[in-house]
Amino acid sequence: MLQRTLHLYQRAYQGLSPSVWLLAIVMLINRCGTMVLPFMTLYLTQHLHYSVTDAGIIMALFGAGAFIGTFIGGRLTDRFGFYYIQLFSLMFGGFALIGLQFVTNFYLLCGSIFTFTLFGDSFRPANQAAIAHYSDPETRTRAFSLNRLAINLGWAVGGALGGWLASIDYSLLFWVDGLTCLVASIVLWISLPVPSRPKAKVMQSITSDLSDPVATSQSPYQDTLFIGFVVCSALYLMVFMQLFSIVPLFFKEVLGLNEQLIGRLMALNGILIVLFEMALVYSLEQQKRPKTTLIIVGSLLTALAYLALALPINTFLSGIHIALLFILFATLGEMLSIPFLQSFTVERSNPATRGQYLALYGMGASFAQTTAPIFGSFLVAQAGFSVHWPIAASLILASSCGFLWLGKVLKQKEARELSMEQSSESSS
Fold first, then answer.
1. Which of 207, 364, 381, 406 has the greatest number of CB atoms lying within 10 Å of its CB?
2. Which uninterrupted H or E stretch holds 108?
């Protein structure tokens, strides 16, 4: 049994190119300093003494900058290539984070955070395009999972260290986060060669059960099925991303957890992903399970995670028990959904439009990041956490229904095309 498990993990990491590993190392360095985002709501409310509503507005601008920055990043990636966009974004983000700690005025904070994410989040489509460039269809989902492993390993380190630093001085979060961005940019600059640009006519192989070869020849903004996919993804992510804004506030104000314990819980999310996601994704790919099914199951598990937060504290269920239940269900849901959301996006595109497809998906994620704190903080302020969590779970259920409908439409389309091919062959 042990030997079989070891072989499973060994096979899960085989076949990935050196450049994919290098990109993962760059991401790991960068994410080891990810401390500002998970503690931003606490920083704004506990340190700068802004209201929950004001903090929600600032976090919404964080998402708005990311939304526009992702769109611009996708366009620039297709035009100039992913290498230079990643390099600029990391360098700008490093200096911006260091400077952000000195801004305390509400309006200046709004403008500074919007500008930071506007340029900083151009990294996202460029990085995903780089992973797609250095992987083939057979290893692509695992390549994205390796990148997520690096993100979450860094998240585990950054979350635990961030909780400790926040208990000392919140300004340390900005210094460490900014410096790791700069170190990551230097490693990228020294280690990764500038790639040659792909020819516009080159088309990738399509292997996803969700993909549609016709869609790969057009703009993502004309691909109606992909737009539906982005809408469903955004609805799911709008709830999931409250992990970074409303959930830490709930942990502190309702469950009574301190910053260090919150940091450890955030780190647990990353540790579980590091330990299990690559092997899980590899096993599921070997079983050829439909991506729609996996995404739906992952979404439903995330809904259960948010329903767990509505459980009352009693003799048998303490605050830490509720927090652990949430982290376990949310992490498993994340592992079953997000890697396959990303790989589907790549498989709908070709090298000439990949940046724009990834940007549109990223814009959906950024929209979710924008609306999550607005939706969460407003509902919490008006009705309280006990009303908020069931509504959040209901939104994920709506997203799951959308993915179910999308999967049926694509399956019917695939069946029609197969029938037409068979008719054509029989007539010839």
1. 364
2. helix 106-120
